[in-house]
Structure of Large ribosomal subunit protein uL10:
Amino acid sequence: MDRAQKEELVTSLSEVFKSTSVVVVAHYSGLTVAQMQALRRQMKASGATVKVAKNRLAKIALEGSDVAHVASLLKGPTIIAYSSDPVAAPKVAVDFAKANDKFVILGGAMGTTALNVDGVKALATLPSLDELRAKLVGLIQAPATKIAQLSTAPAAKLARVFGAYSRENEAA
């Protein structure tokens, strides 16, 4: 990697660290190529991204960002997972770590908050933004449907009463 490529990588990583809401750092030593590809596919499917970068270059890119405290985790063969959704990257990382013993989560950051392994696991248990949006829409729709049911209920009752009277008159 020549100097221009390194500068480009540092610039792109710096932009990533400034724009993402969550970063997860993990060791990946011992994973096969197929396992790494599976991890990348899972991350991409959930809207997250995985990067393997030289620790020295990643530390340079971290300078001046909100997640700069992650630099202490960058030792050895590390992988950086990030996403704009605060739950996507931790959820995939934790699920992948359960299936692969050689993938070890070291910690991460959410905004200016440093996360240890337990913090990353706690984030992974939260519902994603899409799930929360669906729940909110459901909560908003529920009162509207109940109001509609209540407003139509008196008319339905009247219709049943009139129907009963008409059947009674026909029988007589």
